[in-house]
Design a protein that fits this description.
- The chain has 15 helices and 16 strands.
- With about 450 residues, it is of the alpha/beta class.
- It has 4 domains: about 30 residues; about 200 residues, 2-enoyl-CoA Hydratase, Chain A, domain 1 (Alpha-Beta Complex); about 130 residues, no CATH class; about 70 residues, Nucleic acid-binding proteins (OB fold (Dihydrolipoamide Acetyltransferase, E2P), Beta Barrel), CATH 2.40.50.140.
- The strands form 4 sheets. Strands 8-5-3-2-1-11 form a 6-stranded parallel sheet, sandwiched between helices. A 5-stranded mixed β-barrel has the order 12-13-14-16-15. The protein has a 3-stranded mixed sheet with strand order 4-6-7.
- Strand 1, helix 2 and strand 2 form a beta-alpha-beta unit.
- It starts with a helix and ends with a helix.
- About 5% of the residues have low confidence.
Length: about 450
């Protein structure tokens, strides 16, 4: 009995010990500071700004200690960049911008965002710089406008650098001279605060650092923190894909084909629906991209010329003009000065050829339908062979050999009962007939 009692005590002790250990572990996890981690790779555009705001709201609502925004970007739109920077300046949660992974960059708009962060850091093998503003819409800025835009960008980035205590002189050179430096050079120049191999090393390096947020000074405590990723949802991923110039161009082409197909054959419904949806998605994409409206008008002119080819015979001149206008318009459509803001030539030529081939195919079908002998209505009766039901001295009755209908008929020559005749015209409910052309019948039988 004593043995059983001791055995029970041991089991009870083990259960209590395990419970206390589990409770302690849970309390430790609960007490650990939460760090939100977001990763973005691509062009800075309205989707980026919306995603950053979403992540920052998550961090604020969950009372996170820190937000780490891992960034790899070639640059992007000025308006979206400014929205992100405004969110950083107004954030009660400290924001760390970490240019990563190895081989990543923070160019153009990425320079402004990185320097605006409470803590700016870069991974090994990354670079930052080349922040000179470029013309949106493919046009060249005149000298006065170029100076205005450049001076505005310089003033903005210097204000950002001075606010965060970073190298304002280099920031000005990044805008005026498109200067670009490696992560080690950026650290030596005072452009960034840290260089780290990975996120864990970065969190260890910034522990104890004081940063000033919109609500006051915060001391970062980043040891033994709980990392929580905030990935892009399917919605953000979908909108990001739509913001690609090549995707926008393809959507516009699909929309054009669908609308043309619906106009060519009303009532098909599916081409019209697909075309309308594609055009709406393309218009959404266009608002996130620098569109050259001269290029857009040229593309529309090209489509109109190709449609006119369906209505009139121009010996191919309208088709050639339409294809040329579409190619020129496509090249001009999105030319914001940077490669990521342009439509690839490897996309333009196949898409234009497919669209032109589709319209020319419809043109061929239309021409064939015009030349085809009518099969319904009064016109379909012309050329048919009839059989005289009564003598036709001038008037009488005939049977249609196809269909067996009885018609009143008029003939310019006498036709006897049982003889065949050819319909030459239809006037109201009366057929005009003449003697049957046997030579024609012989030709058709050979």
């Amino acid at each position: 009995m004593m043995h059983s009692l001791l055995h029970g005590c041991r089991i009870t002790f083990l259960v209590v010990s395990f419970s206390l250990f589990a409770i302690g572990a849970l309390l430790e996890v609960a007490s650990a500071a939460t760090v939100k981690v977001a990763t973005y790779e691509g062009v800075i555009n309205p989707v980026t700004a919306e995603y950053f705001q979403f992540v920052l709201d998550e961090a604020v609502e969950s009372n996170a200690h820190l937000l780490v925004f891992q960034l790899d970007t070639p640059g992007g739109l000025d308006t979206s960049m400014r929205l992100i920077i405004k969110e950083i300046n107004a954030s009660p949660v400290p924001v760390v911008v970490f240019v990563s992974p190895n081989g990543g960059r923070a160019a153009s708009a990425g320079v402004f965002i990185t320097m605006a962060a409470h803590v700016a850091a870069m991974a090994n093998g990354t670079n930052i710089g080349a922040a000179h503003p470029v013309a949106m819409g493919g046009g060249e800025m005149d000298k006065v406008m170029k100076e205005k835009v450049e001076n505005d960008a310089v003033a903005y980035i210097k204000a950002i650098a001075e606010k965060r205590g970073r190298n304002a002189g280099w920031a000005e050179d990044a805008v005026r001279k498109s200067m670009s430096v490696t992560e080690k050079e950026a650290l030596e120049l005072g452009v960034i605060d840290f260089v780290a191999a990975d996120l864990n090393e970065l969190l260890g390096a910034i522990d104890g650092r004081e940063v000033e947020t919109s609500t006051g000074v915060v001391v970062l405590k980043t040891k033994d923190v709980h990392l929580q990723d905030v990935p892009m949802t399917w919605r953000f991923e979908f909108l990001k894909v739509l913001s690609d110039p090549n995707i926008a161009y393809i959507l516009m082409t699909i929309g054009t084909i669908g609308i043309i197909a619906e106009l060519y054959s009303p009532g098909m419904i599916l081409p019209g629906v697909v075309g309308a949806v594609s055009l709406i998605l393309a218009f959404y994409s266009f608002q996130t991209l620098p569109i050259n409206y001269a290029g857009l008008l040229l593309m529309m002119l090209g489509v109109v010329l190709l449609i006119l080819e369906m209505q009139m015979f121009s010996y191919g001149l309208l088709s050639i003009g339409g294809i040329a206008a579409m190619i020129l318009g496509s090249v001009m459509l999105m030319n914001g000065g940077a490669e990521f803001q342009q439509v690839s030539l490897s996309v333009i030529f196949p898409v234009v050829l497919v669209l032109a081939g589709f319209i020319l195919l419809l043109t061929g079908l239309a021409v064939k339908s015009f030349r085809r002998r009518p099969v319904t209505g009064a016109e379909a009766l012309v050329g048919m062979t009839v059989l005289a039901k009564t003598d036709l001295d001038l008037e009488g009755q005939v049977w249609l050999k196809e269909g067996g209908e009885l018609w009143n008929a008029t003939s310019d020559v006498p036709i006897r009962v049982g003889q065949e005749a050819d319909v030459t015209a239809v006037k109201g409910l009366r057929l005009l007939v003449t003697q049957h052309n046997k030579a024609k019948e012989g030709e058709s039988s050979t």
